[in-house]
Specification:
The chain is mainly α. 60% of the residues lie in helices and 0% in strands. This is Transcriptional regulator.
Length: 53
Amino acid sequence: MSKGDKSSYTDKQKRQAHHIEQSEKKEGKSQEAAERIAWATVNKQDGGGKKKS
């Protein structure tokens, strides 16, 4: 697992990251690279963890 606490992410964000990670691994990326890409993508789309109002 990559560094950083993932507890502040919603279930939807975690599912999205998992799906992206699996897709990257199918394309031949290493576990570490796939996970890094997945969380970077989720962060770019949603701006990080749960939104505070």
